[in-house]
Here is the input.
Amino acid sequence: MKPGRVSREEWKWLAAWSLVFLLLTGLPYLLGAYLETPESAFSGFFVAVEDGNTYLAVMRQGAAGRWAFTIPFTPEPHAPGYVFIVYLLLGKMARTLGLSLPLTMHLAKLVTTPLLLASVYRFGAHFTAWRFVRRLSFFLVAAGGGLGWLWVLAGQPFAPGVMPTDLWVPDASTFLTMLTFPHLAIAQSLILWVAVYGLQLLRRPDWRRALLIGVLGLLLSLVHPYSLPVVLGLLGLCWLQQAWRARRIAWKPLVQLAAAGALAAPYLIYSVVLFWYNPVFRSWQDQNRIWSPPAIHYLLGFGLLCPLALVGLLCRRPLRRWSDYALPALWVVLIPVGLYVPSNLQRRFLDGYQAPLTLVAVAGLLAVLHYVRRGWRHRCVPYFGRRSRVILPLRGNSHLPGRNRCNRVVLVVGTVSMLSNVLLLIGFTLLVAGRPPAVFNPRAELDAMDWLAAHSPPDSVVLAAYDTGNLLPTRALVRSFVGHGPQSVNADAKQSLVRAFYGDAMTDGERVRLLETYRVAYVFYGPAERVLGGFSPANLPGLRRVYADDVVQIFQVAGGGAP
Here is the structure.
């Protein structure tokens, strides 16, 4: 079999494992749905709940018929933008099918997860025909992590930003991607396909393939615009490397690659303009600080892949039959530099990175097995050149010396790499079983929000506590005073105002001026608001109670929302 070819048997094997990963990553969600009660409802998320509510809020706008997104977590009026296209479309799909928004999102994962796994396998297949290497790379990407499990067992802090990346960064972990949101799987799949078709274009220029790359690149930019320059830039470097090795410049593939980039670029340009000139979107970009943690968290997060990848970069001789090895090698070397360039989006450079890193690490593992013991070499494996052979656990090789030792080495590497994800899956399942707040929401609060959905004008501003404001736009087409760190303009200042409003730090006159300044239409008063202080909106002039039960009260502001 040639590199790049995937047999029907392999696709069947991949489909079976895709089903296994769907079941594993869906287990905590199924448990959450099972544990719902008449008093509390499963939010649909157990990790990154705040971001999950953001995507549901976008779907809510799509279900209302909108094609452009208005930020629902800030009261400032602004022109909408064409972002979050995937979730706007999912919202429209939910309305058409009559399904709930969380259910529609999770049904989308039934498509995006197999798509991601197929992309990972096809990416590895481009570089080697050796089926064992393809499958090992696939497992280490799909189920592998780093040494985060050691961090947990050592009792170190378990919180985003202060622990190894395999425990909290979906961009760096395919397993976490499958556990979280469908757009992440779409973006990483498109990155890998653009890379594969781009390499094919560099070897065999073809305008139809250039068109395909342009279309895939445009789709990628609709999901993660910042990933498009990264993958196209890597392909450009591969073109330079090929020109240097051939001692001649091949203009045709470069022209076609540039044409594909031009076709994919319009939405990227639109995004740059939108986030630069729209002040509310600009504020979102400025507050969206996706900075890299200390390097040690990356090294622990990728675990054994790091030293093995270093071997794979340095010991190239046994792997000279691998096709287009320069791309994953460049990818592995350059992305760590990008992780610390001055930018709010440092961690986003990890999109798709696990696949090339794993491939180079597997190459390093093979090189180690080749050089460490002479008994592991044999001519039965024709993928390392005529003078360099290595034995690995292939069918029919049980009589060859060193096979069991080789099996043990591969088994240890695989087991150590998968422990973090096993621990995460167990931990998330136990978390859901405990039915904590935010993961499970009181139905009384949801009923009050549904009342707002039925009775409030679209885009009405609602004053509420931060957690309430994060959930409100998922249930009603309203805008929260504050509810999301990056998307709420001056989020920290607004949280202070909310605490002062419900607490004792404001006079009634200051409260009235606050409502007038931000054109607040409704004041929400539930458990989260009561915790902030002893003030009751019922005592504020100009407020009229329009909804009440044993848990929540909603007050309408006289003249609220009027320009």
The first helix runs from residue 8 to 34.
